[in-house]
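STRUCTURE:
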């Protein structure tokens, strides 16, 4: 639930993000969630670079499979509800559009195209 809390800025995306997380966990994929990396730093960062994604921490879901060993924030009721009732979705990936919303993708190739479009 704490992962959803940190990822979802738009209420209507919480269950979709939860569905993506559940899909990735079910299929044995790394979660690769930026908020888990941001949690590893002593000081607040807003932008991550490639070196940041390689930080050694059990919370880094780019380096370690499954869920982190503990929560990364205090989730609200909506995130807890989304974690318990994920949307059944075909999506496995998402990228921030820069306005707090996300573009969701079914395949890695589609995700790469979305990243090229939304990440400057």
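SEQUENCE:
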């Amino acid at each position: 639930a704490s992962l959803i809390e940190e990822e979802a800025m738009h209420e209507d995306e919480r269950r979709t993000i939860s569905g993506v997380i559940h899909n990735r966990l079910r299929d044995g994929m790394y979660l690769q969630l930026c908020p888990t990396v941001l949690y590893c730093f002593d000081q607040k960062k807003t932008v991550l670079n490639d070196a940041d994604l390689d930080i050694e921490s059990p919370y880094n879901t780019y380096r370690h499979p499954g869920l982190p060993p503990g929560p990364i924030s205090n989730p609200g009721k909506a995130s807890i509800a989304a974690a318990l009732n994920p949307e059944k979705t075909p999506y496995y990936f998402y990228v921030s559009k820069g306005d707090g919303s996300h573009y969701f993708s079914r395949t890695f190739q589609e995700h790469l195209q979305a990243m090229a479009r939304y990440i400057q």
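REMARK: Strands lie at 93-96, 102-105.
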